[in-house]
Specification:
Rossmann fold; 6-stranded mixed beta sheet; alpha/beta; 43% helix; 6-stranded parallel beta sheet; binds alpha-L-arabinofuranose
């Protein structure tokens, strides 16, 4: 469609004002602005692809690229924070317009975040965060898009208290050491349990958010603590690994051991339906559409809230069957 002279002049003034707005808000915060344009070169340096959650998150970015006019530069750090830093550096060198970073761990990715800012690239942290004592949203990066991990741990603890009578002897399978979900899910759960004398955390050890490591760690901890009757896993993959270890040891998950977890994967919802697992609090991996929406607002000059919070549901026997078809 061709615009009339006056109309096209107005449109270009409006575009200019929007850009000026973007620059004003961004520079007031000391952050690089984002120009409004037809296509963006978008960096998404994924940390690993060893579980359904990560695969669903990467797919969400690829699916969004089409509708949001992104030329997506996506990498896979294969579980190495050092490789993820190198991937960010390479994206900076390739001249990406904007960076959506899921930092594997809280500290090692901070230099990469600061280098992106120095290179004039607005950065959004997605799903995981960095150490807030060192790097701050609104100053070092634009915003964190993600769940409240402390609240997820708290909700699992509260559900467990309401659904497990008597003494609870708990094994906790932690996520990746030094990652924000592992730190926060532990805090949320442990703080609630500390207020209840009938609950004891027998052991707490990392399974790196991975199914097979979760299984191996559970095997070892089960030998040291055969009286365990609750397993809290920081994600569904480790919960499924724990179920395998318990079954191999002749235990009956769901009957003599209550399994509680976080994410909402298809396997976890099936385990709930099968009576092997009690609850999983959702942690959505579908960040692509949210990233597109927030990036659009930033390019239009809007000030972005430091934390764009994702609201999570809770899945139990009451609703798991209703949601399994949409699960990943
Ligand atoms: O950062 C979110 C966590 O990372 C998910 O709970 C987990 O499954 C993933 O690896």
């Amino acid at each position: 469609m061709k615009l009339s002279g006056t109309f096209s002049a107005m449109a270009s003034i409006a575009a200019g004002l929007a850009l000026a707005g973007a620059a004003t808000v961004a520079s007031a915060q000391g952050l690089p602005p984002l120009e409004q344009k037809d296509r963006y070169k978008v960096g998404f340096p994924q940390m690993e692809s060893n579980n359904p959650w990560r695969i669903a998150e990467t797919k969400s970015f690829h699916d969004t690229a089409e509708s949001c006019n992104w030329d997506l530069v996506a990498t896979d750090a294969a579980g190495s924070a050092a490789k993820q830093v190198a991937d960010v550096d390479s994206m900076i060198a390739q001249g990406i317009d904007v960076l959506f970073l899921p930092p594997r761990e809280e500290k090692p990715l901070i230099p990469a975040v600061l280098r992106a800012k120095q290179a004039g690239i607005p950065t959004f942290l997605v799903d995981r965060s960095v150490d807030p004592n060192v790097a701050v949203a609104g100053r070092d990066y634009v915003s964190f898009l993600g769940s409240d991990f402390i609240d997820q741990g708290r909700r699992v603890a509260e559900w467990t208290l309401a659904n497990h009578e008597g003494e609870g002897r708990i094994i906790e399978l932690e996520g990746t050491t030094g990652s924000s979900p592992a730190n926060d899910r532990k805090k949320g759960f442990d703080d609630v349990m500390a207020e209840h004398d009938r609950m004891t955390i027998l052991a707490s050890q990392t399974g790196d958010f991975a199914r097979d490591l979760g299984r191996q760690v559970m095997e070892t901890l089960l030998q040291a603590h055969p009286d365990v009757n609750i397993v809290y896993a920081h994600n569904d993959e480790m919960a499924i690994g724990a179920i395998q270890a318990l079954e191999q040891a002749g235990r009956t998950p769901g009957e003599d051991v209550l399994i509680v977890s976080i994410d909402g994967t298809r396997d976890a919802l099936q385990a709930i339906i099968d009576g092997k697992m009690g609850v999983t609090v959702e942690s959505s991996p579908f960040f692509g559409p949210l990233a597109c929406e927030v990036m659009g607002r930033y390019a239009a000059g809007e000030e972005i809230e430091p934390w764009v919070k994702v609201e999570d549901r809770i899945f139990t026997l009451d609703n798991a069957a209703d949601h399994i078809d949409e699960a990943y």
